[in-house]
Specification:
The protein is mainly alpha-helical and 333 residues long. The protein folds into two domains: 32-61 and 255-333, no CATH class; 63-251, Penicillin binding protein transpeptidase fold (Orthogonal Bundle), CATH 1.10.3810.10. It is 52% helix and 6% strand. A three-stranded mixed β-sheet has the order 2-1-3, with no helix packed on it. A two-stranded antiparallel sheet has the order 4-5. Strand 4 (315-318) and strand 5 (325-329) form a beta hairpin. Helix 8 (187-194) crosses helix 10 (209-225). The longest helix has 29 residues, at 2-30.
């Protein structure tokens, strides 16, 4: 009984400290300057033939929630963050659940990032898994929640998220995959698109339609579970044939982002470019990328390492005379 009493007291004070910390943190960020949400399309990258192969972390056309299909909004909430409108940027119960599952599995098999956290990453941070980045993400997420409404955060997220093939933002994605506006997406189309951001190189229907359909089924099941649609509606949607209009072109290369990352890292080191250019947009970058060379490297990786899943790889192809980097692979995916 003494042990239980001590445990109860410990838990009580831990909970009290947790509440005080959260209230204090929220009040602190409330009086800090409002975060500048950079929603323009910042960077356009071109290959050596001056063909566009990447556009930055914004959307070419920013649209309001009113112009996005309710199916897409509900599908995204169901699969990414069902408690979005009820938390302060962090879903603590989900974090505890994910930690428990990962502990049982002995590996990270489930994440707990909210839409607010993901939006913060899209806007302000790189993807290095360091404690410093985690702390920055924590405070920036708090600031985002303090200064913007849930609707503004959700709208920003849907306008900047990666839908694969170098396509960012739901309006661009709807146009790329289905040649229509985001507000006209059907449930079948919306549930396909909502499943892509988790892993664009895996769940894009242009890369693997079977994987995309399996992911769609998960999205639809989550929508049923959260009472967004009925089971009958889900069953009918699963049987519906979806026609994709996006083409399997050079943007289909899963390793292309390694080249893009290298370009952006170098860009940040060029001190003669005013920082304001990166903040206000309109910057076009012309590179030495040769898409044929990049394709060759990627196919070589897939062909020669398909039976050696534990082996990683890196490769670079360049012109010795000039040092021009034609292709770059930093891993399998």
């Amino acid at each position: 009984m003494k042990l239980l009493k001590r445990l109860f007291i410990l838990l009580f004070f831990a909970f009290l400290a947790f509440v005080i910390f959260n209230v204090g943190a929220f009040l602190y960020v409330k009086v800090t300057p409002t975060l500048e949400i950079k929603n323009a399309n910042k960077l356009s990258l071109y290959d050596y033939q001056e063909d566009l192969f990447f556009q930055g972390t914004g959307a070419t056309e920013w649209i309001s929630l009113d112009n996005i299909s309710p199916y897409l909004i509900k599908a995204t909430l169901a699969v990414e963050d069902k408690n979005f409108f009820n938390h302060n940027g962090f879903d603590y119960l989900r974090i505890i659940k994910a930690a428990y599952i990962n502990l049982l599995e002995g590996a990270i098999v489930q994440g707990a990032s909210t839409i607010s956290q993901q939006y913060t990453k899209n806007l302000f941070l790189d993807f290095n898994k360091t404690w410093q980045r985690k702390i920055e993400e924590f405070w920036l997420t708090y600031e985002l929640e303090a200064h913007y409404s849930k609707e503004q955060i959700l709208e920003g997220y849907l306008n900047t998220i990666n839908y694969g093939h170098g396509v960012y933002g739901i309006e661009n994605a709807a146009n790329f995959y289905f040649d229509k506006k985001a507000k006209h997406l059907s449930l079948a189309e919306a549930s396909i698109l909502a499943g892509i951001p988790k892993n664009p190189s895996r769940y894009s229907p242009l890369i693997d339609e079977l994987e995309a359909k399996q992911r769609q089924n998960l999205v639809l099941n989550m929508m049923v579970k959260n009472h967004y649609i009925t089971k009958d509606k889900k069953d009918l949607t699963q049987q519906e044939r979806v026609v994709y209009l996006g083409t399997k072109d050079k943007l289909n290369l899963s390793t292309l982002m390694y080249y893009q990352d290298a370009v952006i890292r170098e860009l940040k080191e060029i001190t003669t470019i005013p920082a304001s250019f990166l903040e206000t947009g309109g910057l076009k970058i012309y590179t030495n990328l040769d898409v044929n060379a990049q394709t060759y490297l990627e196919e070589s990786v897939k062909k020669n390492l398909k039976d050696n899943l534990d082996i990683e790889v890196a490769a670079v192809m360049l012109k010795p005379e000039t040092g021009a980097i034609l292709a770059l692979v930093g891993g399998r995916d």
